[in-house]
Design brief:
Elements lengths: L5 E5 L3 H11 L4 E5 L2 H11 L3 E5 L7 H9 L8 E6 L4 H9 L4 E4 L4 H11 L6
Length: about 130
């Protein structure tokens, strides 16, 4: 059964967006953005509960998008999971320092990601 929990997927690789959309579309309400700039435009009207945010993007990277979201008090309740191909500890620490709630490295198991989403869902959606 699909939840009303809203997730914004942000990645500059359309194939990565398609994979996440296919894996999550039966579970959540989804939108996507192919850049940090586009994500920042979508947030005010979509009001996501969670953002799955790629770090390595052209233009504004995921760290800067996260920083900007956290600087806006209207978005305090939005959860952010950074997604990266880099598994180094300093990258994770940088992600947490800019306000990410969690950090997932590629490739990842969909089941693990869904469990992380469920744990961040304060409203208890399943």
């Amino acid at each position: 059964m699909r939840s009303d929990y809203k997730i914004l997927i942000v990645d500059d690789d359309p194939m990565n967006i398609d994979i996440l959309m296919d894996d999550l579309e039966d579970l959540y309400v989804l939108r996507s953005a192919e850049s940090g700039e586009e994500a920042l435009q979508i947030i005010p009207e979509f009001h996501p509960d969670l953002i799955l945010l790629d770090i390595m993007m052209s233009g504004i990277d995921g760290y800067e998008v996260c920083r900007r979201i956290r600087a806006d008090d209207r978005y305090n309740s939005i959860k952010i999971i950074l997604i990266s191909g880099r598994a180094m500890e300093d990258e994770r620490q940088k992600g947490y320092a800019v306000g990410a709630d969690d950090y997932v490295t590629k490739p990842f198991e969909v089941e693990e990601l869904v469990e992380k989403i469920r744990l961040l869902d304060n409203n208890g959606h399943q």
